[in-house]
Amino acid sequence: MKIEIITVGDEILIGQIIDTNSAWMAAELTRQGFETVAITTVGDQEEDMAKAIDTGFSRADVLLMTGGVGPTRDDITKKTLCNYFRTELIFNEKVFRQINRLFAHKNYPMNELTKNQAFVPKGCTVIQNRVGTAPLLWFEQRSHILVSMPGVPFEMKTAVTTEIIPRLKKRFLSVDYLKSSFLVSGITESSLAILLEDFEATLPGNFSLAYLPSYGLIRLRLSARGKENLPEMRFQEKKLREVLCDFLVADSDEPLEALLGEALRKEKLTLSTAESCTGGNIAHRITLVPGASEYYKGTVVSYDNRVKISLLEVSNQAIETYGAVSREVVEQMAQNVSEKMKTDCSIAVSGIAGPDGGTPEKPVGTVWICTRMHRETVTKKYQFGTSREENINRTTNMAILQMIKMLDKYKNKKDAN
Amino acid sequence: MKIEIITVGDEILIGQIIDTNSAWMAAELTRQGFETVAITTVGDQEEDMAKAIDTGFSRADVLLMTGGVGPTRDDITKKTLCNYFRTELIFNEKVFRQINRLFAHKNYPMNELTKNQAFVPKGCTVIQNRVGTAPLLWFEQRSHILVSMPGVPFEMKTAVTTEIIPRLKKRFLSVDYLKSSFLVSGITESSLAILLEDFEATLPGNFSLAYLPSYGLIRLRLSARGKENLPEMRFQEKKLREVLCDFLVADSDEPLEALLGEALRKEKLTLSTAESCTGGNIAHRITLVPGASEYYKGTVVSYDNRVKISLLEVSNQAIETYGAVSREVVEQMAQNVSEKMKTDCSIAVSGIAGPDGGTPEKPVGTVWICTRMHRETVTKKYQFGTSREENINRTTNMAILQMIKMLDKYKNKKDAN
After folding, report:
1. In terms of CATH, what superfamily is A2-171?
2. Which of A6, A203, B21, B60 could form a disulfide with B2 if both were Cys (CB 3.0 to 4.6 A apart)?
3. Using a CB-CB distance cutoff of 8 angstroms, which residues of chain B are in contact with residue A287?
């Protein structure tokens, strides 16, 4: 059974909002063993919606449609579906009572526009919306199903989890989706593909391997459908791990900052950071992890060299001799921030994010990263790209990764003793 | 001329990533006067892609396709397009030289798979990718155009702004998209809808007003197509401004941090920040703006109270008496950071982001924000929600907004004198 998600809304087509509904729905359907074959967004025009339904039915068995079901003038999904399925609107007493209950509970006054929500297409199955006024409409035509539901995220999520997925499960066979993620670094996408050539060539046909590169990292996703493939999955995972060898950072789908947090927590170590070109992004990423205050003490962002001198006590001489973007300066930053914040570990970065500030010797994208732990330091120079956004994100990833690797070595050494 | 965006990638269909590329592209196309009629996502299968292209050509004149153009085996866009347009791959010397340049610059070794990127479909126009290895492929068939480009966000963005939009503009008439944005704060979405009831009821039918709420702010977008509507647009803008009155923060579509940067630059003022619960996100947002180093000096993120004491010299007594999340502590943070970093203005925040750390008196979501300028301070307490991500983002928005308002008052006072 194949599913297509159809989102209705001009606001997506003009780029005013990002369609996070479809992403959530796709993830949930996958988790529940269903396959999404397409996601389509069209505007609030009857003709476009009808065409999308036609196309959808030609490639999927079930269409899950969100949006355009509000009480206002510009919401035309209900009318379009009436015309598409050649039916008419009739008053539904049960829906009306539900709307009344909701409005009474929130102390909202009832009005004509809202009453209209109780008119539903004749012949479709009407499913109560437990948390909103627009009911879910379930249409069947020959072997095809179309479900219309609200686009309000909270209402859509409630509808999908409590009503739609249970009904689809009763009706169709769901097939378990098996997935393993591997975080890889230190290799370009194409070199990785060459490294994995034999692995991919011998991978069973019902397995797939996908590459998701992101700012200096590559996530590999090995996947297959069907519980019966679990032993083969385990076997392939093991094989893949062996081939990836030193390029493998983690077999996990966790963000890098969560992996760092886990490693610090396990070893009961604390961390501070000193940032220049990343402007606080490393601290931001680290503190996105709930409970980060357990191991993370803080950062100094020295966007101005004078702040490097006054707050981080980097020597004026080092800045004058080597420049702010240099091995000497990041090492001083790392040492001083860990001493000032009394942490076991520290990360310091200094670089040129761009678009301005580059020189022939230090072009935009030049970045020094120093990671420090118990007086030991690892300092590396990187050459990233010309885009400010890219440089900030790549520096952040590489800095966190460099710290994770340092912690790994520490742990291995400790375990060996 | 109508455009459809087609995104290729299983990772979107399983909900592993959110399709932010399409949203960005749709926004940019709209801004440039083009109309997007549909956005479609299909997986990395030739049959699905071919079907999506067929459907696309039946409703749009131009298909902008992203994804599936990497060097790895799971990237099959190029092969699919060859089959679709009945052509074959040929070696392109210019593309190969560009790849070589890129690899040399980044110090990557060249390999066979990357060389393959230089094989392009015969008969299509090949456009250099200035920032990556996969070239842009421009196909024409009768009156239809299909452009294939990489899915890597910054490569896609570079391609769209520097190559694709200029070429579309040469070829097609763009119909001016008139748009005004209004940044609103201090009112809920539903209260705003009630406030704007009369305005919306009398808005001409070819105009639309959209609401985009985001972390304590609401962006309103008033729009219409066609230059001839410009006088009416100006009239409606004026009306809307009057109704919005004090809730209006700015008539601009710029991010809040860019508005702050503009205000500081105009008044030649400098800024520093001291963050606790936002963990560096305020600094990160401020430094996303190119040229921020002109006015922004840095931040101290004191995730640990001892860092508040050691680096920010907040008095131990204030923390013990009032707690870290208090008026007294944020005011000291703001004062001390501006003195240490020698800035005219400063922002300090302290709060409980959650999910843990709340108490009955200070539940999760309690945040104090102090903005300071030339010894004057504004200090406010906010009560946000229970989600960590929401609290970090709302605090960041409200802190930047509070600073913008302070600068506004300063400017008005100065202008009045």
Report:
1. MoaB/Mog-like domain (3.40.980.10)
2. B60
3. 278-281, 301, 303, 353, 392
